[in-house]
Amino acid sequence: MPQAALFDMDGLMLDTEPLWTCSWEPALCALGRANMPPGLPDEMRGAGPAARQEVLDRHFGARTIDQAALWERVCAHMLEVCRDGAPKKAGLIELLDHLRERGVPRAVASSSARPMIERQLAAAGMDACFDVVLSGEEVVRGKPAPDVFLEAARRLGVAPASSLVLEDSKNGVLAGAAGGFVTVLVPDLVAPDDEMLSAASFVCRDLLEVRRLLTSGIIR
């Protein structure tokens, strides 16, 4: 059994990624950019501030759009459309119960802003399910840098090499691998590419499969 389990939130625990995808275009329009580049939401998925700025610079030109201003509008849109919460992903409750019953500490380490994390966890009735809740905005470097996972592990008092990171996005999987964690990829909207598959320690269809592999001792 791992020393701890560190969870991403969007697309991994909660089915929010389609809503995030729909939030980028109105946010760009509010900044005077009517034409959203194809694939931009996929590139932004799970990304921290520096990675978001790199994507914007590549599509629109260096510092043409400030990622912080855009991110503020994206989050405002998400807070509006997610006011009643989002559906839980299959197997989430079973996995959390499995870990809790075995005394495995749990953390949320998400690129989302803290108000979004707290609102979504509360709406899902999971605000008491985690020992640590951490936003990527609370560390120096966001995903794909490993800082948010390393800080969550530090707060839990566990070693990365003996702890799980559970992720659905490319930026998140790369962050988990860079931090030396046992990184479990549970793909959501985007099929994993070779880089993701290479970075992941395990690839599971859903969280039910994660629980099965923990029970069997394949993931430990």
Structure report:
The chain has ten helices and six strands. Helix content is 46%, strand content 11%. It folds into two domains: 143 residues, Rossmann fold; 67 residues. A six-stranded parallel β-sheet has the order 3-2-1-4-5-6, with helices on both faces. The chain has 220 residues and is α/β, with parallel strands linked by helices.
Q: CATH superfamily name of the largest domain?
A: HAD superfamily/HAD-like
Structural class call reads alpha/beta
Strand content: 5-15%
CATH architecture classification of the largest domain: 3-Layer(aba) Sandwich
Tally of alpha and pi helices = 10
**Would you count the extended β strands for me?**
6
Task: Tell me the CATH topology of the largest domain.
Answer: Rossmann fold
Organism: Olsenella profusa F0195
InterPro entries: HAD-like_sf, HAD-SF_hydro_IA, HAD_sf, PGP-like_dom2
Keywords: Hydrolase
Protein name: HAD hydrolase, family IA, variant 3
